[in-house]
Amino acid sequence: MDRIPILKMSEFLIVTIQVDMHDRLAMILQEDLTSQIAATKARGVLIDISVLEMVDSFIGRIIGNIAAMSRILDAETVLVGMQPSVAITLVELGMSLPGVRTALNVDKGMALLRRSLGRDRGEDIHASPET
């Protein structure tokens, strides 16, 4: 596989990594994702890494870069499905991934993006809908 699919859902882009990441594939994903954010004017990016069993410092740095580039392009980034072994490795490598928000699964990640988007628009996300 030479590319990771990027799906558009409403104002969000969804990336589900289904293969082991290697450096070249990570760089292609970074380029493709930033291009898609700009082209679609996406407000949020959800990256599902639940299949990844290992993340090295390069892949961790790419994830951090994606989040930084997304912010510059006015989009939030949420990383979901992180395996405990991946979290341990990132901490042991001293990687804090600034700007990357995390959630346990896709549902919680999408809810986090929706709440964030609601706040950006100044909406009261706790207000009950009018009937």
Quick overview:
44% of the residues lie in helices and 17% in strands. By secondary structure, the chain is an alpha/beta fold.
Describe this structure in words.
This protein starts with 5 loop residues before the first strand and ends in an 11-residue tail after the last helix. The chain has 4 helices and 5 strands, in the order E-E-H-E-H-E-H-E-H. The protein is globular, with a radius of gyration of 15 Å. Helix 1 runs parallel beside helix 2 (57-72). The chain has one domain: Transcription Regulator spoIIAA, CATH 3.30.750.24. By secondary structure, the protein is of the alpha/beta class. A 5-stranded mixed sheet has the order 1-2-3-4-5, sandwiched between helices. It has helices at residues 23-40, 57-72, 84-92, 106-120; strands at residues 6-9, 12-16, 44-48, 76-80, 101-103.
Question: Cα-atom Rg, whole angstroms?
Answer: 15 Å
Q: Oligomeric status of the shown chains?
A: single chain
- Give the strand order, joined by hyphens, for the main sheet: 1-2-3-4-5
| Poorly predicted regions | 124-131
* Major β-sheet annotation: 5 strands, mixed
The CATH homologous superfamily is named: STAS domain
Q: What general form does the structure show?
A: globular
Structural class: alpha/beta
Order of helices and strands: EEHEHEHEH
**Percent of residues in β-strands:** 15-25%
What's the CATH C level?
Alpha Beta
What proportion of the residues is helical, as a percent range? 40-55%
- Ends distance: 49 Å
Q: Which CATH architecture?
A: 2-Layer Sandwich
Count of separate DSSP helical elements: 4
Number of E-type strands: 5
CATH structural fold name:
Transcription Regulator spoIIAA
